[in-house]
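hey so i finally got around to running the thing on that chain from the lab meeting. sorry it took forever, my laptop kept dying and i had to restart like 3 times. anyway pasting the input first so we r on the same page abt which one it is
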Amino acid sequence: ANASHPATIRLAKQRVRCRDCSRWSMAQSELASKYCSISNASKLKILSALTEDRSMTSIARENNVSINTVQRVLGNCSHRFIDSYEYLPAHLAFDEFKGVDRQLHFICLDGDNHQVVQILRTRYKKTLLKYFGRFSPQARANFRTVTMDL
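ok and heres what got predicted. didnt touch it at all, straight out
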């Protein structure tokens, strides 16, 4: 049950045939997803490690899985982070910060609840126009900008 302790589970996922309808089914367990040999607890531990500033290689070594497995876990949850271009908060706060390789990045926050709306790799006008140009005209018309020094 604890993903931090290595354990080997011999879970034989047998295929069985129903005598009545002659259909095949597979035995399932809550420990691992169907057709998968990596436990759900290990996947959750990998996902929580991905929120830290660490390399995928170190996460893979710590969890005794391959780097491809770490990438697959990240890819399986990436659909939750797809941007919606139909809504912009009423108040936006903009700033720039030094990020990777000491480059300046752009951050956009909701001015009311201080939630991050988007982080862009560069702060250049071309990038900002491209990002905000993706929003529908209705979404762009519903917000007003307030200049603030953060």
